[in-house]
Write a structure and sequence with these properties.
Keywords: Hydrolase, Metal-binding, Zinc. The protein has 356 residues and is of the alpha/beta class. The protein has helices spanning 78-87, 97-103, 121-124, 142-146, 160-163, 245-248, 259-270, 288-302, 331-334, 336-340, 349-355; strands at 16-21, 24-27, 35-36, 51-56, 62-65, 90-93, 113-115, 135-138, 168-170, 178-179, 182-186, 193-197, 206-213, 218-224, 279-280, 307-311.
Length: 356
Amino acid sequence: MENTLFPVPPGTETVRVRIIDTTTRMGKLPVAFLMEPAMKGMQYMPEMPVWSFLIEHASGQKLLFDLGVAKAFQSLSPFIQRIIESMKTDISVKDDVIDILKEEEIAPDQISGIIWSHWHFDHVGNPSLFPPSTDLIVGPGFKEAFFPAYPASPDSPIREIDLAGRNLLEIDFSEGTKTGRFRAFDFFGDGSFYLVDTPGHAVGHLGALARTTTNPDTFIFMGGDLCHHGGEIRPSQHMSLPSDLSVAMPAMLLPCPGAGIYEKLLFERRGTLEKPFFAPAPMVGTDIEGTIGTIEKAQEADADSNIWFVSAHDPSLFGIADLFPLPANDWKQKGWRAKTLWAFLRDFDEAIDAQS
């Protein structure tokens, strides 16, 4: 892929990507828990889904990237229970991902591996429901940080039951492969699917880059929690606020104010038009400088029209993108990136009204 801003090694193979609504919904999560500075009228995050991605390789291997919240999340480790109680957020889950797959006749033993973007409870789901033949794939530093698991270690967020009898693969990024400025791991060895080292938000945080078409090369970048809102990655020095928001935002979200009033809001918040509306807030267990550095690298991919960056909690996909069981590979042809890119601006309605 010829791109000086976010170069990806050339390849002729693709994977099929299907985006799964895990049925997780998280509501009333304070913005201040994740992002700063505060914004008038936006005390809470919009209701947050959690996306899972089914990755299907030509070899027949199937991977899942993230699982959302386990339906039986009350059975997670005591450490995780304390985190959930401290967040005071509303959590609902209708189905585990394994049940969503079964509805489409994809059996648990067809899943060769589960990739955890990171260890937080809204991503790990319930791997114990999958057979031991399903590997668990994690990022650097995972074993050192979380072993032994619960209950052998009462303060570990990870459960022994999720690891029992299965291979745990901790990705080694030392081979030197790069996608953009990120260290990357060519999972299948053919350039179709890369795991990406995206440190900062949590120990061993992983992203993923799936080649969805060739000629031209297009990709879906699964960002996990490297950011939690479109306004935490956009705009950037590589991608300005669009001058014509009627083109950048789907008709369903119009009418909306002109770009100038968003530029005024952004400048008052950040002192520049080349930074996102929000910066990540310091969190326990988060390397804030690493998080900012990862976002800056991801902005280079986000600005590429052949890469669709999808964070784990982006609600803008609803009503625009085809969800599981339909594939997402033709996202560019269907214009999903263009329709979702700036949809987050509607979250700022009250702040914009105050400007008027």
